[in-house]
Amino acid sequence: MSATTDQPLQKTTTPLPVLPWPVLQTVAALADAPLTQIAERLRDATLPYLGSSALVIFTEDCTGRPQKKAGEEEITSRVSIAELDTLRSTLSDETPWFGEAELAGRSRPVLALKHASSQALLVLTDPHPTDPGNNTGLDLVTYLWRIAARRIQEKVADAPPSYLLESRAASAERVRVTAELTDLHSTTLETLLAALRSSSLDNAAARTTVTDLAAKALVRLRAHSDRTNDLVKEPVATAFERLREDLRPLTRFSGIEVEFIEPPLNGRDLPGEVAHAARAIVRGLLLAMMEQSDVSRVRTQWDCDGENLLINVRDDGRGALAADAPSIIRLDRRVQALTGNLQVDVMPGWGADVFVTLPLDPPARPTGDVAGWNLAPRELEVLQHLATGQRNRTIASTLGISENTVKFHVRNLFKKLDVGSRTEAIALAHSHGLR
């Protein structure tokens, strides 16, 4: 045996490096976070290094709920996709950006970071470093954000069917709201143009008329969000009257006579999406018919057979309205989205007759598993009543609890379901068979 091997083994005295366990635990928490909790986990991870009043993630990978938020409710409940999209467009790369930005309805200091591959955006409002003399905090926040953004991509790519159903339901609701706003803007602009072009108004009268119309449109637009959130069902007569009021300014200046045939007063209430779609479809048909030079009169009629809303719009033109016109095709897509039917009958020399059928009940869906939401029994009861379109006061009366208690449960439901409004909660509940 050699002299070397005869020597006893010596213990090393070099200490092992101290591992950054808090950071490693934070990374592990982010890696395990479900999509519904990733904003909260990321905010918990960043607060020790960079304080903030709220954290908002904007990612188009999650089509149904592109916003993921944590922090002060005043900010998280009011921040809009338009604000986030505008802020993202100002960032050219992944470099952290500090500055003032319009967020949640007012200008406020923010830190914004963009993820290169997904274009996801992270926004921290009112950022303030916990250690002002050290830049390590910002570096750690940037590192944690990249992990979170990458995990969002991976989780969406591997999403189970239940998540995809929820996402589709929330996306459909957002599309409906956006379409309603678009229709309102289109009608307002058409009305303003009609007033400005009218030969029966002088300049002063035209300015007065346009100012009045614009002011009313702004008030209507501001009230639209609350109306959309609260309105789940609407009497068919009320929905038709709103259509008439929406179209009154346009028909006043168009020079075309529009006749409204009212539906029966005792017709079945319309689901919110059917009422909104019906008004949008009639507005679209009316505008398409008014584009024809030979139309002087249009008649629109609603009826309800208990299972469907029946719409008929007819003009007195020469029968030039084409069923394959882009405007009609767009309207047909909206009808098909509600599993309805649109039929155009063109009568040369006698005009066009359009019939629309919109089912009041959506196709039956299999009941999904809601266990993953971890709802308390009372929360599930409130959600079931919410899914049927009941208001807080009605739910309180039915369950024998106070309205404030219902509001408390609804806030908890929004948090657990990761939704921002009653309409999103209802859409999500419907996608799981709760009605």
UniProtKB/TrEMBL annotation:
GO terms for biological process: regulation of DNA-templated transcription. It holds the Pfam family GerE. The lineage of its organism: Bacteria, Bacillati, Actinomycetota, Actinomycetes, Micrococcales. One of its GO terms (molecular function) is DNA binding. It comes from Arthrobacter livingstonensis. PANTHER family: DNA-BINDING TRANSCRIPTIONAL ACTIVATOR DEVR_DOSR. This is Helix-turn-helix transcriptional regulator. The keyword Transcription regulation applies. PROSITE patterns: HTH_LUXR_1, HTH_LUXR_2. Residues 369-433 form the HTH luxR-type domain. InterPro entries: HATPase_C_sf, Sig_transdc_resp-reg_C-effctor, Tscrpt_reg_LuxR_C, WH-like_DNA-bd_sf. Keywords: DNA-binding, Transcription, Transcription regulation. CDD domains: LuxR_C_like.
